[in-house]
Each structure stands twice: as C-alpha cells, then as structure tokens.
Design brief:
With about 240 residues, this protein is an alpha/beta fold. Helix content is about 30%, strand content about 25%. The chain has helices spanning about 5-25, 45-60, 95-100, 170-180, 190-200, 215-225; strands spanning about 35-40, 40-45, 65-70, 85-90, 105-110, 115-125, 130-135, 135-140, 145, 155-160, 185-190, 205-210. Helix 1 runs antiparallel to helix 2 and helix 5 (about 190-200) packs parallel to helix 6 (about 215-225). Bound molecules: D-MYO-inositol-1-phosphate and calcium ion (CA). Calcium ion binds near residues 47, 91, 92 and 94.
C-alpha cells in the first residue's frame, strides 16, 4: 500500500473528529438517551451516531482503510486488515456529556503498521482542538504547544481516571492514594484523552490510569509525544 503523507491523514482526522464532536454538541438535548446501562458507565444513542459520522468521513477519503471504533457502529467482522487503521472514540467522557458537564471530547487517530502517525482531539464545548502528526508539532487551536517545565513531583498536577470496572480493581485507588500524597494536586476529570491533552499543553504534569483502552489514548498519546512529553501504554486491553 502506498504511503500517505501524514499531513493528509491529519486533515482527515481533524475533519472526522470535528464532525463527530459537532454532531454530539448539536444534539446535546438528546444526551439522556441511553442505549445500554452499566454500573459505572452508559452507552448513548449519540455515541453510536457520532461513531457513524466519523466513520463516514474516513470511508469517503480512505475506503480501504480499517477502522477500530469504541462503538464499532457497523458491527463488521474485520477480515482484511489494512496497513492503515483508524482509531475512533466518538465521545470520550460519555458520562460527563450525559450529565451535561462540558469536559468531553471526540478523538480520532490513525496508525500505519501499528504506529500512530496522526491524531486529533476535539472538545466542542471548551472550543479546543488538539492535533499532531509524526511530521508536525502538537497544536492547540493551531498554536504550537509544549509540555510543562515543572520537574518536581511535589509541584506537579497529576491527572488520573477510574475505569468502568472500578469495583473489581483495587489498584487504581491504591495508585491514586500513593500519588496524591506526593504531588501538589491529583485531579480526576473523567475524560482520558482530554486529560492527556492537558499534559501536552503544560497545564498538568502527568496522567496515569489503569485499564485504559486504545481509543482513549491513541490520538492524545501522539499529541503528548509531539509536545515533547512521554506517553506509554503498559500491557494492552
Ligand atoms: C472513559 C473516560 C474516563 C476514563 C475511562 C474511559 P469513555 O472513556 O475516558 O475518563 O477514566 O477509563 O473508559 O467510556 O467515556 O469513552
Ligand atoms: Ca467513548
């Protein structure tokens, strides 16, 4: 498969993430429409619709590429894997969105043979678009961003999240307790991709979470790295 310039992929990621985010934002009067309910999470009709919107944008430009989505709207078996794989989280921070909090976002990344090469995170209600590609720096609303210069843990703001299966997983609480006592502040905002973007633009010094999914961190991980930070996923779910 011919290699596509990262710039072109990023343009598509931006288009897809904006389309998904704007659809959720324009239809926020339907934020209470639940399709499935779990003890610590909800799946909304808008999660599914926004995934379809993002997929539509990607398929129009790159019909042969694979798509991995949190909501996998078309329920298709992926028999033929392309070198290019798009990773979509149509609404990250679904519970925040459902309750009317403004901290939620859409996230779209693309990887080439396993390496994330472009990604965009869009938070419509905050008016923030974070972008990066392997050939370009991380940007917030078009302006280049860099990670914080704070180098002491005791002066740091560290963000974390609690996954959907928190009942059965004690480690997140133990990790939070261990970190909270040693940093200036620990913060839990409920939207992993946006948490990581706070690190990319220097508002926070770090983010950690157990049991995170690839669609939560694919785009934001690249944005952190292109902003001069480090991002690592240990183990895979
Ligand atoms: C969740 C959010 C949350 C994090 C969870 C994620 P979702 O994603 O990012 O902050 O703590 O681990 O699953 O379900 O809202 O897309
Ligand atoms: Ca989601």
């Amino acid at each position: 498969m011919k290699k596509i310039p990262a710039k072109k992929l990023l343009e598509c990621a931006i288009d897809a993430v904006k389309t998904a985010g704007e659809h959720a934002s324009n239809n926020s009067n339907r934020r209470r429409n639940i399709v499935e309910i779990f003890r610590h999470d909800v799946k909304l009709q808008l999660d599914i619709e926004c995934q379809q919107k993002a997929e539509h944008v990607i398929r129009k430009r790159f019909p042969k590429h694979s798509i991995l989505g949190e909501e996998d709207s078309f329920g298709k078996p992926k028999t033929v894997m392309s070198d290019y794989e798009w990773i979509v989280d149509p609404i990250d921070g679904t519970v925040n969105f459902h309750h009317g909090l403004r901290s939620w976002c859409s996230s779209v990344a693309v990887r080439f043979r396993g390496e994330v090469v472009a990604g965009a995170v869009f938070a419509p209600e905050l008016g923030e678009l974070y972008t990066a590609s392997i050939d370009t720096p991380a940007r917030l609303n078009g302006k280049v961003i860099t990670v914080s210069k704070v180098d002491k843990l005791s002066d740091s703001l560290i963000m974390t999240g609690l996954d959907k299966n928190t009942d059965s997983s004690i480690p997140p609480y133990a990790m939070l307790k261990a970190i909270a006592g040693n940093v200036q502040k620990a913060r839990l905002m409920g939207v992993a991709a946006l948490d990581m973007c706070q690190v990319a633009c220097g508002r926070a010094e770090g983010y950690f979470e157990a049991h995170i999914y690839i669609w939560d961190i694919a785009a934001a991980g690249l944005i952190v790295r292109q902003a001069g930070g480090k991002s690592e996923q240990i183990g895979k779910i």
